[in-house]
Amino acid sequence: MATELPKKEAVIVGMGWTGSIIAAELAKAGVEVVGLERGKERGLKDYYVVHDELRYAIRYDLMQDLSKETITFRHHLNERALPMRQMGSFLLGEGSGGSGVHWNGQTYRFLPYDFQIRTQTIEKYGEEKINQLNLQLQDWGITYDELEPYFYEFEKAAGISGEANPLGPERKNEYPNPPMKETPITAKFKQATENLGYHPFHVPSSNMSQTYENQYGATLSACQYCGYCERFGCEYGAKGDPTVAVIPFAKETGNFELRHFANVTEVIHEGGKATGVRYIDVKTKEEFIQPADIVILSGYVMTNTRLLLTSNLGSPYNPETGAGVIGKNYCYQLLPGVTGFFDEERFNTFMGAGALGASIDDFNGDNFDHADLDFIHGGNIACTQTGARPIASNNVPAGTRSWGSEFKELSINYYTRSISISAQGASMPVRENYLDLDPTYKDAYGLPLLRMTYNFTEQDRNLYHYIGERLDEIMLEMGASQISERSNLENYDIVPYQTTHNTGGVIMGDDPGTSAVNNYLQMWDAENVFVVGASAFAHNSGYNPTGTVGALAYRAVEGMLKYREEGGNLV
Fold first, then answer.
1. pLDDT digits (tens, 9 = 90+) for 79-126
2. How far apart are the first and last CA of the chain?
3. Tell me: the pLDDT tens digits for 24-74?
4. Residues 36 and 277 sit within 8 Å (Cβ to Cβ)
5. Pairing of strands 287-297, 273-281
6. Which residues are catalytic?
7. Which CATH number fits domain 3-565: 3.40.50.80, 3.50.50.60, 3.30.360.10, 3.40.50.1450?
């Protein structure tokens, strides 16, 4: 029998970036809030031993325990899905701060084209372009101009260091901090791309270029360029991290309570409204019901989608008919890359930061003509210096065996004589890529696992090949004596790491028939439920998603406060 707790005005499920922002803003406005985080508490004191590549980067100490909850995966509808038994393609964070603890910090704004992708593609190329590629495109129900001030609010919270993007969207304010340091590697990339007629700029970074205080009174330290960002917490407090930048302020308001080890298993609802959530204390195994006036799901893409499906809230997506919305438009990213090997030049590749780098947007969005191309959109191309850690960094030329004396000799030789460039290729939705509940496998609590059905498409393969050729061109211009070979994009593989940039499943829009939430991320089917995060993306762009996730979180808070006063559907 579950113990029913005293009612709160708002309950938040998941305390990563989105949950932390919402907690701080609602508590600041006088709302009584409780946050439920299924993992443990984290903070700077937990990161003092973080320079342990084996523990954190290889054995995933900050990540979700897949023995208790995982996903199942298949390529096609006619295949049986099997559980993902080890972290690979993407890394699911757990504990306070979520993936905001172990991210690299690259923080872009999606392009105006992204938010009106269907309309703008049809206007320029005709609807036949979309139909030929079998894409399930839709606009997001909001424009870049409407979202612009919320982007800046998140950039202030995360302390973004950056400079103007010559091909990026209009900004009304400069970045809170100047860009990070120029290095010989970033300078070489910029010179090469300028030589080719492109428009380089420094990667916008949530690694602090200087000591910075954000709007919540949090002081973030200047980056030390130690090279331990991705998969690690920052012991210097020099990376935008919710546990440092936002959560302390939320607690100081006196209106916010954070409960750890609280695994939410159900959104309780009736009559088109939620009444609260059911959760299990994972340490004591006790079950509780937390009633609330407003229920906010701010977990990861998979978490938000699965919780709605197991709660029978919203209409599940059916890929055969195209009806339903929960689980629809799951997207990922493409990662063409190239490594250049240099005979004479040496670089301090062991130094770096998660978002130290330079990039170009000449082949992102619709910044180039697609009339004669067999794909739409594109990707941001970047040369980043994240710090080559010794266990995982073994760049060797093509044809080298992956073991033995030759491998060891060339690994050492090219450790400081190799540079990599990669692109984040956009991912377009198709009817057959989606999320639902697995009919066979269950988690530790007897609930169905989430099932992912996903594979690359011809759109993906064509984009990957085109961007890959641009990468080779740039690397040769940088002076590499030889470059790595790139295989063709075939079937998606869930094992090797790619990016933790999963999107979709609870997508936003202006039509309840084709979207799950409106532009305040309020559910069409339950007016007091807000589902916040990259699950709202109707497709994935050629950037890291966090900046857009943060902007949508601030926009959603505005909707929650409006709902608190007025009730009803907000749009």
1. 999 999 999 999 998 899 999 999 999 999 999 999 999 999 999 999
2. 39
3. 999 999 999 999 999 999 888 888 877 899 999 999 999 998 988 899 999
4. yes
5. antiparallel
6. 501
7. 3.50.50.60
